[in-house]
């Protein structure tokens, strides 16, 4: 077959591709000069020279998509299909992925990271369109470690300059509950545990909103809160048979994972509810504990605005003078009974506590470093350094000898 | 609040006949300079030894002709964008000011201030504490790390793990990474002077070990400060209003990462009200960043 180009020796245009033994050679038919021999490399220029037509050329594709890019794009598309995302999400995710791979920050990373990059692009697309997708879901789909994913996600955000809105908790509740298996009758679920989806959803939303108003959501991972709220909602809708079911069993029946912080969130939610219950006039007589308050969650949620205002001292306000004492209408005795919650520490077991994040209510004991000793001597940084001070850091000859013997350095 | 006379009155003498006109000028400036948030409210920082007179002068000259009408040593006006004015503070800031300059000058100026928003009352009165300083210095001689590790008590050297000697001294309590090229990184000091002193001590140790160590190009690379605003903060709200600067991912980290543009500081803001500021090369950047963020955070302090 005739090849293009001119022979450098004789200038003839008749170049032929021929094989010398097993080696391809490009030879001038006129003078026999060998222009090139078979090469083991597969760079594009070499392939062009040997006239092997690449797939992309034969199909007329202008841009050369590297194999890595092709693989990545396919991965992104697969992820979108698995998550059942709309088609427009897929296009956006693929475009992000292509843009990212062109940047030097991502072109040379390991293959593992490139795969995570694809997942990150899908994640960013979902977040930007308010599709509630958690990092945990993506990480489990990619079998990735969360901290590695976090690193790639943050650098993607920085490099592409993307603004990613916060995760909407309400949408997360909806999608999370969709995966619960207590909503349809199955073999191992007793009849009393089945629940109607709409009712469960509505009540869980209300509890999650309550949690976010009472500072239980800020700074915390959202999924354990949703799990704990769903559990409380489910229990309260039919307390009789369900009160004895612990959180772990509930998650098993529902077919979802039990995240470890969910127990703590549950405890905090119950504490808030107990506080609110102490303000409901028809409950004041009862001595509610954590289990019993679940029965009254419906009422508590219904009146939650009023109860929140009265059950917890607001930041910056004086104590409420509503009648929250033991039924006494006048304020002073009532105010006396309420503690002094303003100090910022909670009144444990008292009727009133400030509405603060749990980290402020139960501050961990921290060694507060002593006040800076700058007043003692205004340091200039240029003070003289005594020899003795330095010498304390040097080993004596005996030590060195002993060390040398011990370590044979 | 645009025609508010808050910033200027306490800066004039009561006797001045021009009182009535100047506030209007100031007000027009207020409306023009919306983009400036509280800048260097050095009102409260005047007692700090580090905030020198230079800082205050710089601040004064920024607010141009406004300040020229004022007496010397007067408080610089804090320009506050209308959005950030705290409508809950009804009292005139001048009266509440602890600063000595104000007390001498602002007797009954209040008639002109119906409401004072913002301005000096926003200056927080909270000073970030420096927690860590990272500095580098060049000892300008090649070092034998094995030798150093053998002869120094306070050194550890594990070449398989890290290619530098890790040395610690007790006073000031710091740690240094000493590389074989002669470069050294000193971390853990609580002030710039302490960092410099510590670096010099390390250099002296290396000198006593027999190397011709010098002390070149000492430079502070990073300063970390922290403080507490003493009220809880709604991070979800903050990330909504300051989306271009904030990054709040509760799945990853409980705090909000706020990348301030001027000065270029990264702040970690937590729900408890604790704020960590990092990325500064000077102490003033940390103070400035905190004074910039404080009014923003105050806006999110709400009884829920």
From TrEMBL, chain A:
A GO CC annotation given for this chain: transcription preinitiation complex
Annotated Gene3D superfamilies: 2.20.25.10, Cyclin-like (1.10.472.10)
Residue segments, region Disordered: 316-393
One Gene Ontology molecular-function label: zinc ion binding
Positions of the TFIIB-type domain: 3-36
Biased amino acid composition, Polar residues: 321-339
PROSITE patterns: PROKAR_LIPOPROTEIN (PS51257), ZF_TFIIB (PS51134)
UniProt KW keywords: Activator, Metal-binding, Nucleus, Repeat, Transcription, Transcription regulation, Zinc, Zinc-finger
Localization per Swiss-Prot or TrEMBL: Nucleus
InterPro entries: BRF2-like_C (IPR054078), Cyclin-like_sf (IPR036915), TFIIB (IPR000812), Znf_TFIIB (IPR013137)
Biased composition annotated in UniProt, kind: Low complexity: 369-379
Gene Ontology BP terms: transcription preinitiation complex assembly
Family the UniProt entry places it in: Belongs to the TFIIB family.
Known role: General activator of RNA polymerase III transcription. Factor exclusively required for RNA polymerase III transcription of genes with promoter elements upstream of the initiation sites. Contributes to the regulation of gene expression; functions as activator in the absence of oxidative stress. Down-regulates expression of target genes in response to oxidative stress. Overexpression protects cells against apoptosis in response to oxidative stress.
Name of this chain's protein: Transcription factor IIIB 50 kDa subunit
Organism: Rhabdornis inornatus
TrEMBL record, chain B:
Any Pfam family hit: TBP
Protein name: TBPL2 protein
Subcellular location: Nucleus
Basic and acidic residues: compositionally biased ranges: 55-72
Region: Disordered, residue numbers: 55-122
GO MF term (any one): DNA binding
Species classification: Eukaryota, Metazoa, Chordata, Craniata, Vertebrata
Keyword DNA-binding: yes
Similarity section: Belongs to the TBP family.
GO biological process: DNA-templated transcription initiation
Record keywords: DNA-binding, Nucleus, Transcription
One term under GO cellular component: nucleus
InterPro entries the UniProt entry points to: TBP, TBP_CS, TBP_dom_sf, TBP_eukaryotic
Main location: nucleus
Residues annotated as signal peptide: none
